[in-house]
Design brief:
3-stranded parallel beta sheet, 3 strands, alpha/beta, 4 helices, Rossmann fold
Length: 97
């Protein structure tokens, strides 16, 4: 997303790593793009842990699994993007934060 003026913080290959990355960094990312279906921990599990550490974390779910939309939003996700979506829609949501 460099061409949009964003800096990529990192990529976690599983939910456990996402939590560890968030926990172990001093400068927190402005936005977390979270997918649901990941190994070790799901996106919902990882999001719950991150939000328990920092209730101000901004998480945008990006997943094709619309069955988890209400739960994602109820645990504190800022937004839910059902795949497929355009990069412009995602960029607009990030900029709103």
């Amino acid at each position: 997303m460099d061409s949009y003026g964003f800096e990529l913080f990192g990529i976690a290959k599983n939910g456990k790593k996402a939590v560890e990355m968030y926990q172990n960094t001093l400068k927190k990312p402005d936005v977390i793009l979270m997918v649901h279906r990941m190994p070790v921990k799901t996106g919902l599990e990882a999001s719950k842990e991150i939000l328990a550490m920092d209730k101000n974390a901004k998480i945008i779910f990006t997943t094709a699994d619309k069955s988890i939309k209400q739960e994602a939003l109820s645990i504190g996700a800022y937004n839910f993007k059902e795949k497929p979506f355009t990069i412009d829609r995602l960029v607009n949501n990030i900029k709103k934060l």
